[in-house]
Amino acid sequence: MQTDQPPDSIKAFEDRLAEVTDRLPKRLKQCADYVAANKDRIAVSTVAEMAEGAGVQPSAFMRFCQILGFSGFSEMQRLFRDSFVGGWPDYSTRLNHLRETGTGSPAALLAEFVEAGRVSLESLLQGIDPVVLDEAVKVLSKARLIHIMGLRRSLPVASYMAYALEKMQVPAMLHAAVGKLESHHALREGDALLAITFAPYSAETIDLVEYAENRGIPVVAMTDTVISPLRKRDTVMLTVQEVDFGAFRSLSATLCLAIALSVAVGTARQED
C-alpha cells in the first residue's frame, strides 16, 4: 500500500489521502480521518499531539505518514510548513495563550471563539479554488430551481442561503426533512442541488445527492474534509473547514462562503 514518492503539494496530499483512506485498517483510518479534519494542525503540532488527537500510538501515526509516501511525520509536516510559509496562522499558540490567561468568563470564551473564527476565515481565503467557485456559481445561476439540503449543524447555513436567495428573487427550495418528510420528487430536469454536510455526514443529504445524480441533476456540494463522501460523487465541491475550540466548531467561514455564493448567484442571474 505504501507509495514511493511523497506528495509535493497540498493538492497532491489531499488526492493521496482520498485515494488510500478506504483501504486502511481501523487504526490508520483513524489517522486519516483526523488529518482530513485537522490539516491546519499539521504544521504546528508534534507527532505525539497528532497521534493523541487521532486516538492512536505515535508509531501508528508514523506508519500512516509512510503509507502516504513520506519518510515520517517530519517530512509531511515540512510540506505544510513550506506551503504556508509567511502566511500560516499560528492559531494554536494564540488559543493556548488565551486558555492560560483567560478566567473562563464569557468575555474570555468570546475572545477564543473570535480567534478561531478569524483563523477559519483566513484558511478559507487561502484554500478556496476560484475556478471551482466560479463553476459552482455557473451551475446554480442557470438552474430553474435551486434545491438546498443541510441538516443538523448545516441547517443554519442552508436556511440562510434559502432566505438570501429568496430576497434576491432566485427560485430556491429548502429541504429540511421536518417530520421525516422527504421532497425528493420535487427535483426536476433543469434544477440544481446544493448539498451542505460536515463530519459526521448526514445520511439524508448523501441520499438526496445520489438521487439527484441518478437523474442527471447537477450538484454543488459544500463540505469539510477531503475524505467527505461527497468527494466521490460527481459534484462541484467547495471545501471549507472550521477551526474548533473545546470541541465546538462555529460556522464563521461556512456562512461567509454561503453569503458570497448566494450574492454571486443572484448577481449572475440579474446579468443573464
Automatic annotation (TrEMBL):
Residues 11-87 form the HTH rpiR-type domain. Keywords: DNA-binding, Transcription, Transcription regulation. InterPro entries: Homeodomain-like_sf (IPR009057), HTH_RpiR (IPR000281), RpiR-like (IPR047640), RpiR-like_SIS (IPR035472), SIS_dom (IPR001347), SIS_dom_sf (IPR046348), WH-like_DNA-bd_sf (IPR036388). This is DNA-binding MurR/RpiR family transcriptional regulator. It comes from the Bacteria. Pfam families: HTH_6, SIS. Residues 136-272 form the SIS domain. GO terms for molecular function: DNA binding. CDD domains: SIS_RpiR (cd05013). The keyword 4Fe-4S does not apply.
